[in-house]
Amino acid sequence: MATEAPEEKLAKKITDAMSLSAVAQQVAQLAGDINCSVAELDKVISKDPAMSSKLIKMANSSLFGFFKKSRNVSDAVTRLGLKQTRNLAYSFCVGNLVSGEKSAEGHEHEYSQFNVWCHSVAAGALNDLLAKHSGARELRKHSDAAFLTGLLHDIGVILADQYKHKDYYSVPGMMTYLNQSLPKVESRFLGFTHEDLGARVLEKWKFPKEVVDAVQGHHSPGQHLDNPLTPLTGITEYVLASNEFPGFHDVPADIPARGLEDIKFKLEIIGEPFNEAIEEFWKTAPELMDIYLQ
């Protein structure tokens, strides 16, 4: 009988204890129906005042750049579209699940989780902006999932800390000491990585496959060029691995990003488009921090 992989065992424990809200599940179901109306989504989302408020704020943020402001959920859904509305509902729900002040074992670790979540919000913003500035048709086809993928790429870090705090709390510090990426340190000391854990949990929560695959492979983007969200998130991860960007970094800033320029070239995010995305990031990130870090 095959031994169950450690990340699979932990993912089962997590998903047995945590589940997406009923509203998020209903939104996902409706958004997957091409016959769904704005009125139907409005009715479901309005059941959750916090989600409604955040959705309207996101629709009015500079990330989406609508000239006319959304006044209500119906306006926001109309402008964002079904898929983006679904993805944002997912993101708000997961944000509520992972942003608690204590782990499942009762340990205080708000500071570390805050930093990881701050980095995640930054990654969501940069992923979205890089996708919008890309000239690659295949990436632009998946651009509505870019923000969600960036936001969730390190969910495995937060969940590992919540559910295996005694084993995990010293691992990020070892990354700096050994000057290795976080997945290499996790593999050495835990037998699994935050990519493995995050992907398994999102898979059990029935997130879109392209998002799950990108979370699984974002530290080896050159090996997963078939899913443009994976190399996109890999670029974002390495760009944010600098002290000038906010939050926790799971790649030491001085580790060389081999092949990164080749990936940027393949995704047509090089030169002026890349610089414009970074410039817009600094204008957009504070708004999103206000929404997701409340």
Note down, in words, how this protein is organized.
There is one protein chain. With 294 residues, this protein is mainly alpha-helical. The chain folds into two domains: 78 residues, no CATH class; 193 residues, Hypothetical protein af1432. 65% of the residues lie in helices and 0% in strands. The protein is built from 18 helices and no strands. The radius of gyration is 18 Å and the shape is globular. It starts with 5 loop residues before the first helix and ends with a helix.
User: What is the fold named in CATH at topology level of the largest domain?
Assistant: Hypothetical protein af1432
The amount of beta strand, in percent, is under 5%
CATH architecture of the largest domain: Orthogonal Bundle
* SSE topology string: HHHHHHHHHHHHHHHHHH
Major sheet attributes? none
Backbone shape: globular
| Helix residue percentage | 55-70%
Overall strand count: 0
Structural class: mainly alpha
Q: Give the mean pLDDT.
A: 89
Low-confidence parts: 100-111
Straight-line N-to-C gap: 46 Å
Number of domains: 2
Give the C-level CATH assignment of the largest domain: Mainly Alpha
Superfamily (CATH H level) name of the largest domain: Hypothetical protein af1432
Radius of gyration: 18 Å
- Number of separate helices: 18
